[in-house]
């Protein structure tokens, strides 16, 4: 088992815990459970619930193990052949969970419990390259080599139902009762009707170390968004994955359910817009803005060009499920055109702000995005544009849906093929990583192609 660096690591903010403070809370009996987690391919938190004293005596400063099949399964946790990382042929060995002691957070909705997020390593200590968190770390290392750090915020929409999760499952997800019966976009009345749940989520997230901005209603029935302040990209991905898991847990405690599915019904889907910019790694200086001339910097333009140039090839990382592609409908505020515009919500890339607030918004991902993969793809594409000095094409003004610009993939199969054939993806992520996620797509596509859907039954059971 690995031995970790035990030097003091500062908490990310004063609402998160240091290892020393956690030790004291365990010894005083305030904390009895430590949850060690990592984010899998599907974007879910996986891991172990440890007794706090065992964590203190045997894991803190070291690591714990779990089966490497956790990065080689489908959403139903079936073991899948064909992965190089883990297989029946290799015997499904262990990998190590390395606690990142900068991520110790209280879970107020689970008394006496903290969560710590982990990096993954092989049993000989090497990073697991196909782990989503490892993939994002690799891209932050590329940015650091230029003297930069990436900061980002993710804006997640979700739909709330008054139907509990268990009843929704038993009823086949039919006839769910939305928490709002009409469009409540920016409606204070619509938000306050759901406020007991939204308030609980906001306050829990704040106490867990996230910086909460606001909540607002959205267009779908029962659809809402809670916004959080931007942070370093890894911190943002950590917060994002914690928020998705904890908010579902809180909804269950309220006798409700919520979903981040990209397209849970025929109305508006759930988006996850990514706002990203670069800053000086050591001095927080502006990278995307030329202050002397009051305009975008050349680096910013190259970065935008890189995100656009790789968008089709990297779409699988932004839209990782069969259902993801149902969002991409003209006039839906989900993009179809691989284009950019200044404050234009019809383009895939929307430029926002000036000076310190200058940033790009990637509107392609849905609420089902794995945050580490989406942020890694965006950062990798942008850095590729900078390193190759790609020229930024003309701005799209007006309705990008009718612009004639290239379009995003409309199916998972199209996105899979784009990633499989991408020389850029092989360069920036590695051929082994590309093969891993292409196989992930193959598994999902094969499962969907073999499924008999409600749509087929309704059309064909009696009438055909």
What does this structure look like?
Strands 7, 8, 9, 10, 11, 12, 15, 16 and 17 form a nine-stranded mixed sheet that branches. Strands 1, 2, 3, 4, 5 and 6 form a six-stranded mixed sheet that branches. Strands 13-14 form a two-stranded antiparallel ribbon. Helices cover 33% and strands 19% of the residues. The longest helix has 21 residues, at 233-253. Helix 6 crosses helix 7 (233-253). The chain has two domains: 19-130, Ubiquitin-like (UB roll), CATH 3.10.20.70; 139-457, 2-Layer Sandwich (Creatine Kinase, Chain A, domain 2), CATH 3.30.590.10. It is globular. The protein has helices at residues 19-27, 52-59, 132-145, 165-170, 188-193, 195-207, 233-253, 298-310, 315-318, 371-387, 412-420, 423-429, 431-450, 454-460; strands spanning 33-39, 45-51, 64-67, 94-99, 105-106, 113-121, 148-161, 212-217, 223-228, 231-232, 257-259, 272-280, 289-290, 295-296, 340-342, 349-352, 359-362. The protein contains 14 helices and 17 strands. It is an alpha+beta fold and 464 residues long.
CATH superfamily of the largest domain: Glutamine synthetase/guanido kinase, catalytic domain
Shape: globular
CATH topology term of the largest domain: Creatine Kinase, Chain A, domain 2
Helices, by number, come to: 14
Rounded to an integer in angstroms, the radius of gyration calculated over CA atoms is 22 Å
Instruction: Quickly give the CATH architecture of the largest domain.
Output: 2-Layer Sandwich
> Which CATH class of the largest domain?
Alpha Beta
Give the integer mean of the pLDDT values.
Answer: 96
Approximately what portion of the residues adopt beta-strand conformation?
Answer: 15-25%
Largest sheet: 9 strands, mixed
What's the structural domain tally? 2
How many beta-strand runs?
Answer: 17
Q: State the end-to-end CA separation.
A: 61 Å
Low-pLDDT residue spans: none
Structural class: alpha+beta
**Level of helix content?**
25-40%
């Amino acid at each position: 088992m690995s031995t970790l660096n035990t030097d003091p690591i500062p908490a990310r903010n004063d609402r998160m815990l240091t290892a020393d403070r956690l030790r004291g809370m365990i010894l005083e009996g305030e904390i009895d459970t430590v949850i060690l987690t990592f984010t899998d391919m599907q974007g879910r938190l996986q891991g172990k619930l440890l007794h706090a004293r065992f964590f203190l005596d045997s894991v803190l400063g070291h690591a714990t193990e779990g089966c490497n099949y956790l990065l080689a399964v489908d959403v139903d946790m079936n073991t899948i052949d064909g992965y190089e990382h883990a297989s029946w042929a290799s015997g499904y060995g262990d990998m190590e969970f390395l606690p990142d002691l900068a991520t110790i957070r209280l879970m107020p909705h689970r008394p006496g419990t903290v969560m710590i997020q982990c990096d993954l390593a092989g049993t000989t200590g090497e990073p697991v390259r196909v782990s989503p968190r490892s993939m994002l770390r690799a891209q932050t290392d590329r940015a650091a080599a230029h003297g930069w750090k990436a900061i980002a915020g993710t804006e997640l929409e979700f739909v709330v139902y008054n139907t509990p999760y268990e009843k929704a499952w038993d009823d086949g997800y039919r006839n769910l009762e939305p928490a709002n019966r009409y469009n409540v976009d920016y409606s204070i009345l619509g938000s306050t009707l759901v406020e007991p749940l939204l308030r609980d989520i906001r306050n829990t997230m704040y106490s867990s170390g996230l910086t909460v901005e606001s909540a607002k209603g959205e267009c779908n029935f029962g659809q809402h968004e809670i916004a959080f302040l931007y942070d370093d990209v890894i911190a943002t991905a950590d917060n994002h994955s914690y928020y998705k898991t904890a908010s579902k847990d809180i909804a269950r405690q309220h006798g409700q359910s919520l979903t981040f599915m990209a397209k849970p019904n025929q109305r508006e889907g759930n988006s996850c817009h990514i706002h990203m910019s670069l800053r000086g790694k050591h001095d927080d200086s502006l990278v995307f803005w030329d202050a002397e001339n009051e305009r975008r910097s050349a680096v910013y333009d190259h970065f935008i060009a890189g995100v656009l140039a790789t968008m089709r090839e990297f779409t699988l990382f932004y839209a990782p499920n069969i259902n993801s592609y149902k969002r991409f409908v003209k006039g839906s505020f989900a993009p179809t055109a691989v284009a950019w515009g200044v404050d234009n919500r019809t383009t895939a890339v929307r430029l926002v702000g000036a000076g310190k607030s200058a940033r790009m918004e990637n509107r392609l991902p849905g609420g089902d995005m794995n945050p580490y993969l989406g942020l890694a793809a965006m950062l990798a594409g942008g850095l590729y544009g900078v390193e190759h000095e790609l020229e930024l094409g003309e701005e799209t003004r007006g309705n990008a849906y009718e612009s004639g610009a290239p379009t995003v993939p409309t199916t998972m199969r199209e996105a899979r093929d784009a990633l499989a054939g991408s020389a850029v993806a092989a360069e920036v992520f590695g051929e082994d990583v590309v093969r891993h996620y292409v196989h992930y797509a193959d598994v999902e596509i094969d499962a969907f192609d073999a499924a008999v859907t409600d749509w087929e039954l309704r059309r064909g059971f009696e009438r055909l």
